[in-house]
Amino acid sequence: MLDFKRLTLLRELQLRGSIAATARVLGISASAVSQQLAKLEAEAGLPLLEQVGRNTRLTPAGRQLVSRVDEAVTVLEGATAELEARRSRVQGVIRFAAFSTFARTFLPETLRRMNRVHPDVVIEFTQLEPHEALDAVASRRADVAMVDEFTHIPRRADAGFVRTAITRDRMEIHLPHPVASVAELAELPWAFEPRGTDAYAWSHRFCRDLGFEPKVLFDSPDPRLHYELVAAGVAAAFLPRMVFHGLDTATGSVVRWEPEEGRQREAMFRDIYAVGRRGSHLRPATKSFLQILREVAS
Description:
The chain has helices at about 5-15, 20-25, 30-45, 60-85, 100-115, 130-140, 180-185, 200-210, 225-230, 260-265, 285-295, and strands at about 50, 55-60, 90-100, 120-125, 145-150, 160-175, 190, 215-220, 235-240, 255, 270-275. By secondary structure, it is an alpha/beta fold. Helix 5 links the parallel strand 3 (about 90-100) and strand 4 (about 120-125). Helix 2 packs across helix 3 (about 30-45) and helix 5 (about 100-115) packs across helix 11. The model has no long low-confidence stretch (mean pLDDT about 85).
């Protein structure tokens, strides 16, 4: 009988791509990961890993085994959901991961309502960027993750994921002072999210569609900092409407600018989804949590 914990470790290695990365995520030593995987290979009687340069990857047998692990996890989580549905009270633990602007805007009220309606449900929260949150759901370190999706830049869609539409967040261009033309936009310094993120790719593509190459001088994953830079008169930025929640917008010099072309105006939004694992999403606690999230976000 194969050890299930070791199987999930193999699955984590496939997600992370290296023993070192797997060890960092799990908070154990790389040697401990290697030892457990060596024991799993002995149990299987087949090589499950192979070295490619400095990297470790799964053999065909290893990949097939991981696909079975995914099926087993889905069955177990579905069974857990069925048992929880038989209880007279909605209860359990939900591990929730969300990016900063969503959490700051909607999490406090969501927790307040959940506590009032289902006091036996415990919500554990971790702030993670969308790609990190998806990894956390895939590796069962989170149950529900909030992700944003920009036009023409789809998020990954794992077969074992179920996603629920929560809200649509308008994106707006904000400037430190008025401009009269696109050419003037090109002369402004810009604050973008880090290179490699979906937000960066979308913003950069949008600027190019307008006909200019943005001069990005400020790189930060925090949209609230982007707003502060605009308000201080030192940068332009693409800001989601969520970032204005709780802000005193009367201070600072902030000018909203919108493109004239209808196609580009329609593209200025991001869709917000809650992503969970198939099977786990059937838990009564999770269904209630998602319903309240939608109500609060609406």
